[in-house]
Amino acid sequence: MLRYLLCCSLLFITMLANAQQPTVVRIQGSYDATAVTELYNSAPIGIQLFYSDSSTQLTTGYGRGNYRWNKLNISSSNGTIRNGVLYFDRAQLINDHYRITLTVTTGNSDPLKTTITLPYITGIRFNHYADSIKRDIRFYLNVEGKFNSGKVFPLDTATIKFAASTGKIIGQDLLLDKNDSSKTVIVEAWYKPNDRMYLRSVIPVKQAPDNDSLLIKNSPEGNKRKRRQ
Questions:
Q1: Which domains are assigned to the chain?
Q2: For residue 78, with 0-12 CB atoms within 10 Å meaning exposed, 13-18 middle and 19 or more buried, which class applies?
Q3: What is the value of pTM for the model shown?
């Protein structure tokens, strides 16, 4: 009888202790804004857990907390999460309006959700490296994207498509034949996920030959004189 009462008492104390333990009532996710997520398909993320007793905890890694990721059961609406790094599909990200929902379970708690919104392009622009195109020399078509994060990054043919009124588009270069007689070239660029983002630029073709008098020439005789000194 005494043993029975002791067991009941221990069970009651255990249940009472468990009932008094704070539970996770809300979570909030964030991503590392320094990870250039604008261009790369991965980003360190952090989860902040809010408890019923008003305390909070942060995950390790980017969150700089001490709550380990292996204690979380976490899934994502886009891609996978490995040790605090989210790997996502950019095409799906665009379709989902750049929002990714994370579903998190801790211990025996009910699943909780949080949504992270990643950076997206708000506009594109040409930023030419030269004022004119030279025939028979590749001209790099530099297109930059401005993001809602305030950052500006160069874009490549993964997201930009090009067209030109003359010459040949080779990757992201424009090449005019050495016998091309055009005085200007109209270059067009579209942002592939949203072709309403459109650019048009009229670039002059250099007509005068280069001024070779400005070249520093390599003279064998000059080199001999230098060695004698």
A1: 21-117 (2.60.40), 121-207 (2.60.40.2120)
A2: buried
A3: 0.76
